[in-house]
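User: Design a sequence. Structure:
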């Protein structure tokens, strides 16, 4: 599997991946994550243009997509019912989605991110059990709850090189 920056001309294919991922979440009982899919897709297009969106391919077929940033995520400035592992600069992961459900895909994407930066944060919806299991398996620590711009809560996790399993 190859991971590379997404191209604007791939947006329509990426959009389909996110729409299918949203349907999958709903089928598994996660009814509210990415409920405003149009807003998510607008962020994805912005991330593609800014060079933060990555695609995973195999034989030139898009398998999935995610966004990875190095810098500050404003919604991480305040954390409730816990605390971050540290205040060091960090990378963060958003919006992992697969074209067709493939066990281990999220793990591969997150491992790639962990190889890019020694301190990584991620958040997920409380109903996104597969993602929670994945990040814990990779050595992330649960840190508390963050709130998105619209007030929705997300469970927040952090990984630091040499303290995580990976």
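Assistant: Done.
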């Amino acid at each position: 599997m190859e991971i590379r920056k997404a191209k604007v001309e791939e947006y329509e294919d990426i959009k389909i991946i996110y729409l299918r991922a949203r349907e999958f979440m709903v089928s598994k009982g996660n009814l509210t994550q990415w409920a405003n899919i149009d807003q998510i897709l607008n962020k994805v297009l912005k991330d593609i243009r800014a060079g933060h969106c990555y695609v995973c391919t195999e034989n030139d077929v898009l398998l999935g997509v995610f966004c990875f940033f190095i810098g500050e995520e404003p919604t991480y400035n305040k954390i409730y019912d816990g605390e971050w592992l540290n205040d060091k600069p960090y990378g963060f992961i958003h919006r992992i989605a697969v074209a067709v459900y493939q066990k281990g895909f999220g793990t591969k994407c997150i491992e790639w991110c962990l190889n890019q930066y020694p301190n990584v944060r991620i958040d997920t919806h409380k109903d996104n059990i597969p993602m929670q299991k994945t990040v814990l398996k990779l050595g992330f620590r649960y840190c508390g709850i963050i709130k998105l711009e619209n007030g929705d809560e997300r469970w927040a996790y952090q990984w630091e090189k040499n303290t995580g399993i990976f």
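Residues 64 and 98 are 4 Å apart (CA to CA). The two ends are 19 Å apart (CA to CA).
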